[in-house]
Amino acid sequence: MDPTTIAAIAIIAMVILLFLGTNIAMAMFVVGFFGMLALRNFTAAFSLVRTVPFSQALTYNFIVIPMFVLMGQLAFHSGISSSLYTAAERWLSKLRGGLSYATIVACACFAAICGSSAATAATLGVVAYPEMKRFGYSPSLSSGCIAAGGTLGVLIPPSTMFIIYGLVTEQSIGKLFAAGIIPGILLALFYMGSITIRLKINPGDAPERATYSMKERLKSLKGCIGFVILFVAVLGSIFTGFASATEASAFGAFFSLVLMIVNRQFTWKKFFNALIETLNTTAMMLLIILGAMVLGYFLSAARIPQFLDTFISGLNVSKYVIILVLLVIYLIMGMFMDSVAMILITVPIFLPLVQTLGFSPIWFGVFCVMMQEIGMMTPPVGMNVYITKGVLKEVPLQTIFKGAIPFTAAAIVCVVVIIAFPAVATWLPNLLYPH
User: Fold this and answer.
1) Could you read off the pLDDT of 243-271 as tens digits, one per residue?
2) 130-148: burial string, b at 16+ Cβ within 10 Å, e else
């Protein structure tokens, strides 16, 4: 049996395993092992699952994962989300639907110190929904804002998904963080644009609100000082070269702890909960990364990248047509597959193809993360929708999915813009890292 056929069977088997509920990491380990067994022999297969996880797990760069996760967990417990939402609500109150715009802005800001989509959606759901409900906002708009805004947590740095992508593809985490800033801001603006269009069509979804004085607006900024210091210190130190991503993540975790104490939110229970969540998340992420690496070695041995390169070279179509085909593939996969698994399974296959087409691996990282965001909102496996439902127990699941539809459409349009103008993602990292 030729290597391409073996690889195709292996990928189909892995998809079946995932649909049956198999752990993502274990599915990739099993497929990588048996794929290499069919391709070579038992010695090669056993060597793959024995040496790759051990050698990679000892890599110093992996320390960045628990540090950034801990930073996000401590920020989650510091109460900073309430301050961000209050400030955004005060400054956007003049707009019809100001609370919905404030939710998106607060999600974007909280994402900049959290790095987790789930934590962003859960935190802002608790803070924002009661306010929107109190002022008569429709449940569809309110819950849709929270589910969509939460997805910004995987795009705006520091993003755990960029860290995973960087470790798997051996790309600079600093460059990936820089690449996510402008697309993250752009996507937040597209989300806000979808709210504007929705309220033009149905103004009743968001009643008029009272405005605040300039004194009240300025006062609300006081609670955001800690956020600004943390964001500038962590990302600024990385982009200026003053500290590595690993060193900056350690500082960020320490400063988040200081914020908890300063904001009088520190308790030993919260602190230990943050440590336990960090341990659980880190273990899960490391297993997934190691499984993806084993799978990637098998696919490389099966010469899948070379096969795709040869196949695409024989097609007489524009490179943008091929990227749009990838977009459709990711849209379909995102409807039925866990978004993290979707990215880690496909990156070893598609990244060499994308590079052959002339696109930067940094750009492809942004593309993948944005497709992951869309997958978090699309039924039936939209993770952020289910997280939002868990927080907003009174809102029917179908109402949240319905509310997320305009934001999903806005995100797709934003991805198309990134495809048409790759410099949106690559300009800033090229500026900060010229070599």
Assistant:
1) 888 888 888 889 889 988 988 888 999 89
2) ebbbeeebbbbbbbbbbbb
pLDDT for 265-298, tens place per residue?
889 998 998 899 888 878 877 887 788 788 878 8
CA distance 119 to 330: 24
Domain of 338, in residue numbers: 3-432
Q: Please count the structural domains in the chain.
A: 1
